[in-house]
């Protein structure tokens, strides 16, 4: 039985007529209807193949560490020398500054050599320092505190945490430094932008972004809608029905999931005098949600603390999704213990957070307030590497798929790195092959290799969020079935895959025979052999949702009767 809070959440979110989470249209299938639990046993399973997982969840770039600054205060002179071209005007300027600095080494060893440089060179050097290093250097002398507080330094640190929006003003703050401080330590929310949660079975996905008009960080739920489907027979097998799929993705702007206002510097100074630094990181931040929409539901934002992974732990994100940090998503004490909350800045997990939600009801204006239905949801992000397509891994990304009566669901299309680099010498030119054909075949074999894993970011009562929905174990010639000749999919590569099915509540799950139809890098289709139908998947353009200036105009509110 759903809790009171879940029923209210269903009314406020799922019950919105603009967001049909389930589709009441009757779906037709050529063979077996997957909507009936008793039919799951009728479909023959296929042997499972162990999915290879790298010992390193996500590869760290040598120059930029995920969530950290690679340059430190001890190495900014080296960064100055090696991070720019030796022939560029900037390098000439840097060399001039370094030679000028060297001239003072023997005669002015007791002085601070940095302050002897022209202010232009000091500003250029400070550009290589991170926010904490700028704060440290501000405590040295009056000259450096003036340069370190300059907007030239701090605008860059604000902008690099706000993809998709060009920040031109620090409003509502007086400076970019003050703006950075006002949202510290929450900038990771906008920097990593995509967040998915452990809401029971179905999950949710939100897009977090910065609104420069109000100076706030907000997160909105990403939803998908589709028109009623059509069912067409497949030319290759008229027992199989093709389900049409033309999804429309949008943000549910009527009700934010996350909202953090910019705290003025005066408020931060006043609050720091009343509490210790530890409380700043483990305290819960109340979120101001529009009272017209939240239906008596209140929300707090909680920073999370990553844990060392051990067997049998309930973790988020789940092991199916590559991640560098994981946090617990089960607690007998409602996540109030010190093991779940960071006690200092170094313990703050930049790849996860939590939201606590509850209802408050009162018996009349003067009656006691009752705290009901408290729930805590854990959100995690994705390493940009796993959803950013490359020339050799073009299917990586966030996708939306068609799941018949369950509606639209969002997926991570994961193409793991190959164990060995591609060997071009292994592709030998054939006698009857032109150079152009040989080059095209070489490019094809470079792209179509390894596995392709579709992992649910949102789910349904049968196969929930965090589980595989299908796996193509090898999209190379090893798993190749044929090239489609029928008009609907003409030219598409078809490979063997395994579809993941289960009865309700994820019971009796198994993998069944299926085929993946690789139409393009932005559209795929899955042939569920036992069910006798083909469903589609499309890439989602996340970038279009990052700027609030791209939002459609708000719908006019209906007057109260």
TrEMBL record:
Keywords: Ubl conjugation pathway
Coiled coil: none
Pfam families per record: Cyclin_D1_bind (PF12014), F-box-like (PF12937)
InterPro entries listed in its UniProt record: F-box-like_dom_sf, F-box_dom, FBXO31/39
Source domain of life: Eukaryota
One of the protein's GO biological processes: protein ubiquitination
Pathway involvement of the protein, from the record: Protein modification; protein ubiquitination
SUPFAM superfamilies found in the cross-reference section: F-box domain
Cited Gene3D superfamilies: 1.20.1280.50
Descriptive protein name: F-box domain-containing protein
Taxonomic lineage from the root: Eukaryota, Fungi, Dikarya, Ascomycota, Pezizomycotina
């Amino acid at each position: 039985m759903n809790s009171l809070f879940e029923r209210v959440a269903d009314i406020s979110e799922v019950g919105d007529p603009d967001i049909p989470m389930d589709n009441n249209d009757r779906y037709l299938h050529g063979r077996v209807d997957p909507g009936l639990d008793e039919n799951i046993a009728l479909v023959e399973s296929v042997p499972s193949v162990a999915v290879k997982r790298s010992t390193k969840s996500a590869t760290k770039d040598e120059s930029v560490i995920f969530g950290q600054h690679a340059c430190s205060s001890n190495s900014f002179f080296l960064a100055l020398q090696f991070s720019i071209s030796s022939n560029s005007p900037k390098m000439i300027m840097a060399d001039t500054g370094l030679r000028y600095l060297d001239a003072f080494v023997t005669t002015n060893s007791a002085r601070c050599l940095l302050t002897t440089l022209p202010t232009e060179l000091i500003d250029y050097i400070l550009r290589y320092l991170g926010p904490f290093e700028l704060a440290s250097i501000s405590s040295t002398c009056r000259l450096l505190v003036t340069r370190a507080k300059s907007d030239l330094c701090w605008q860059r640190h604000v902008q690099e945490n706000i993809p998709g929006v060009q920040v031109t003003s620090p409003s509502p703050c007086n400076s970019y430094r003050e703006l950075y401080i006002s949202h510290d330590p929450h900038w990771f929310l906008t920097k990593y932008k995509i967040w998915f949660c452990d809401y029971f079975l179905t999950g949710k996905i939100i897009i977090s972004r910065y609104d420069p008009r109000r100076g706030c960080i907000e997160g909105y739920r990403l939803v998908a809608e589709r028109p009623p489907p059509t069912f067409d027979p497949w030319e290759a097998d008229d027992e199989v029905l093709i389900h049409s799929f033309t999804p429309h993705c949008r943000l549910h702007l009527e009700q934010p999931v996350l909202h953090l206002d910019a705290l003025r510097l005066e408020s931060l100074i006043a609050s720091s005098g009343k509490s210790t630094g530890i409380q700043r990181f483990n305290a819960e931040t109340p979120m101001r949600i529009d009272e017209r929409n939240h239906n008596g539901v209140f929300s707090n934002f909680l920073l999370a603390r990553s844990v060392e992974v051990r067997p049998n732990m309930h973790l988020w994100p789940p092991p199916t999704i590559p991640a560098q940090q994981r946090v617990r998503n089960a607690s007998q004490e409602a996540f109030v213990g010190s093991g779940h909350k960071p006690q200092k800045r170094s313990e703050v997990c930049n790849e996860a957070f939590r939201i606590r939600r509850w209802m408050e009801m009162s018996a009349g204006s003067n009656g006691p307030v009752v705290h009901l239905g408290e729930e805590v949801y854990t959100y995690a992000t994705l390493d940009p590497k796993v959803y950013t397509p490359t020339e050799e891994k073009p299917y990586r990304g966030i996708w939306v798929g068609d799941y018949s009566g369950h509606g639209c669901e969002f997926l991570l299309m994961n193409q793991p790195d190959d164990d060995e680099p591609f060997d071009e010498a292994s592709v030998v030119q054939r006698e009857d092959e032109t150079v152009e054909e040989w080059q095209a075949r070489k490019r094809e074999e470079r792209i179509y290799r390894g596995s392709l894993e579709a992992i649910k970011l949102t789910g349904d009562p049968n196969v929930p969020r965090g589980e595989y929905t299908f796996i193509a174990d090898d999209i190379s010639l090893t798993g190749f079935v044929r090239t489609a000749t029928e008009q609907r999919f003409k030219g598409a590569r078809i490979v063997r895959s395994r579809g993941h099915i289960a009865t309700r509540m994820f019971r009796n799950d198994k993998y069944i025979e299926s085929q993946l139809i690789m139409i393009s890098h932005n559209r795929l289709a899955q042939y569920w052999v036992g069910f006798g139908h083909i469903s589609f998947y499309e890439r989602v353009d996340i970038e279009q949702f990052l700027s609030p200036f791209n939002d459609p105009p708000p719908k006019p509110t209906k007057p109260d009767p």
